[in-house]
Automatic annotation (TrEMBL):
GO terms for molecular function: hydrolase activity, acting on carbon-nitrogen (but not peptide) bonds, in linear amides. Pathway: Amino-acid biosynthesis; ergothioneine biosynthesis. Catalyzes the hydrolysis of the gamma-glutamyl amide bond of hercynyl-gamma-L-glutamyl-L-cysteine sulfoxide to produce hercynylcysteine sulfoxide, a step in the biosynthesis pathway of ergothioneine. One of its GO terms (biological process) is ergothioneine biosynthetic process. Pfam families: GATase_4. HAMAP family: EgtC. It is an enzyme of class 3 (hydrolase). The gene is egtC. It comes from Streptomyces spinoverrucosus. This is Gamma-glutamyl-hercynylcysteine sulfoxide hydrolase. The keyword Hydrolase applies. Residues 233-263 are annotated as: Disordered. Residues 2-263 form the Glutamine amidotransferase type-2 domain.
């Protein structure tokens, strides 16, 4: 379990999005307001962002709690970006992978995070893992459920799926193999953001100055925050947000996207 956040829009400092808000991701590491599973997110954290003119993201990840990392607040105060993905972690199972298990995971221009847990891990996903190339399994950053979920998503991205399709096809597949899993996924390529609400909370905020924040929970009490219904795919590019119902594992077809009204 964890709390995560993504932003795409006009250039902002990391601090304005993560540290300064009264209930921001920094505070959610010890006092989340809407977390349904777990209470403290102190098992690591990470931030990935894109510098102007560079398609490959930078990452800053640590194994400990974000509040104990004194250099991070200084870094967040000065680093500016148009797109970021960040997470604070509450480990499903204790492990020895340290910061390698902390989101965001990365490959090429993509950043990824998983808020939730796969039931029956690892046995439940053994069949899906068999469908991945051996090199992908040998290259996993960590020995946890999130790293394998990322490998499944990444295989679809490398096959040519866009962000939304990669998530929309992966989530029902995992849900069929591991019923009861919580699969709130968050993905960006530096230009747009895709996310799923599947078993946990997800919200988005169209910012007055432009851009969109997608987060596990609101970082302030702005009335413009919208809650995303469960079993929904969100895609965002700038201020354009679309919500699409996700297929249940037994469904044969997905519903068509619907443009969410702006307020």
């Amino acid at each position: 379990m964890c709390r995560h956040l993504a932003y795409t829009g006009p250039e902002e400092t990391l601090g304005r999005l993560l540290v300064e808000p009264p209930f921001g991701l920094y505070r959610q590491s010890w006092a989340p307001r809407r977390q349904r599973y777990g209470t403290v997110n102190a098992d690591g954290f990470g931030v990935g962002w894109y510098a102007q003119g560079d398609p490959l993201p930078a990452r800053y990840r640590r194994a400990g709690p974000i509040w104990a990392d004194l250099p991070f607040a200084d870094l967040a105060r000065v680093v500016r970006t148009r797109t970021l993905l960040a997470a604070v972690r509450d480990a499903t199972l204790a492990g020895a992978d340290a910061e390698a298990a902390a989101a965001p995971f990365a490959a090429g221009s993509w950043l990824f995070s998983h808020n939730g847990a796969v039931t029956g891990w690892p046995q439940s996903l053994a069949g899906l893992a068999d469908g991945l190339p051996p090199v992908d399994l040998l290259s996993l950053e960590a020995r946890n459920d999130s790293a394998l979920v990322w490998a499944l998503v990444l295989a679809r991205l490398r096959a040519g799926d866009d962000l939304g399709r990669a998530l929309a096809d992966t989530v029902p597949e995992i849900a069929a193999a591991a019923p009861g899993s919580r699969l709130n996924l968050l993905l960006t390529d530096g230009a747009s953001v895709a996310a799923t609400a599947w078993g946990d909370t997800l919200w988005y905020l169209p910012r007055p100055g432009g851009g969109t924040v997608v987060a596990s929970e609101p970082y302030d009490d702005d009335p413009r925050w919208h809650e995303v219904p469960d079993r929904t795919l969100l895609t965002a590019s700038g201020t354009d947000v679309q919500l699409t119902p996700l297929k249940e594992p037994s469904d044969a077809s997905a519903a068509s996207p619907s443009k969410e009204p702006r307020t």
